[in-house]
Amino acid sequence: xxxxxxxxxxxxxxxxxxxxxxxxxxxxxxxxxxxxxxxxxxxxxxxxxxxxxxxxxxxxxxxxxxxxxxxxxxxxxxxxxxxxxxxxxxxxxxxxxxxxxxxxxxxxxxxxxxxxxxxxxxxxxxxxxxxxxxxxxxxxxxxxxxxxxxxxxxxxxxxxxxxxxxxxxxxxxxxxxxxxxxxxxxxxxxxxxxxxxxxxxxxxxxxxxxxxxxxxxxxxxxxxxxxxxxxxxxxxxxxxxxxxxxxxxxxxxxxxxxxxxxxxxxxxxxxxxxxxxxxxxxxxxxxxxxxxxxxxxxxxxxxxxxxxxxxxxxxxxxxxxxxxxxxxxxxxxxxxxxxxxxxxxxxxxxxxxxxxxxxxxxxxxxxxxxxxxxxxxxxxxxxxxxxxxxxxxxxxx
Length: 397
Ligand code: PA5
What we know:
By secondary structure, the protein is an alpha/beta fold. It is 50% helix and 16% strand.
């Protein structure tokens, strides 16, 4: 179960009349959202695709000891952050999933090459456009490594391409070499592609994707509350609260906040508007950014993600440590609110696959509504192209 409270510790910042007036437009906004072409993520996934993904994952596990997932932005953050949430902190499983493609660091890529040289690995390269630089560079380097070790015929077993169905360099390469492929549907953009093969294939290696799919669609019933969250954020923005800080109390949720930052940042940060997303991992960051939040420039509001129960039973002074962690959370909410920081709360009873999958759908809905309330297109990211053009020009000199 997931509970939401966007009122108790934000009420003094929200004008009730303004809230009611904007909230009363909910049905109009739901219709507007559904009218966008890029809402394939709100439609059901085909059972045939789910079976193909499971078959491919089983084949990978049966034949290799490592899968390297290559992708960036929306093409990697979904499955990466999800798996970080459920992975053990100290993991000694024999099969590993390595994420690459997010950096041009030569040190990192050289060390990765050396590491993989000793492994029996295969690659899943994920890019909707098929032309993203970081992904392409990493893919070429690792493909060269595969080529040094195996025949062209063997590469067909070891390379899986997830990309656009009909266009792009990766699509063309898959056609020429007869590589295995999965599609990213035309009507789903990167950061909304959680329930596509882009994320479900890497996740199928370690999780039951039926649970993920079920939890995700459970999130549909949160559409009203997702709109309420978007309205609350928008009204806080009108009060000069232009930064949203996502606060989590479990280190394993850190990558999830990276997913949130990308989702909200790319969805609503355009045309000179939007709320800047940031995150703090508590209690660690209470000893760094906590000072700014409590007493600094009042440009922030916070969204706390709380987990009520834990299956770890460590005690300190005869009290459950998880309970102490949550007592700290509740106290921080009160302290920050008293310091002029509105605090919104999302509480999962358990940190489990179903709840997290529902929450992912909830946040995708909220981000899209937020963009609509800012009058910007939720599904494009024209700003990302600007640096790419500069890089292209600089490399051509
Ligand atoms: O959310 C998005 O659309 C972006 O973050 C993309 O996922 C990211 O830029 C990677 O693009 P591509 O999948 O084309 O390599």
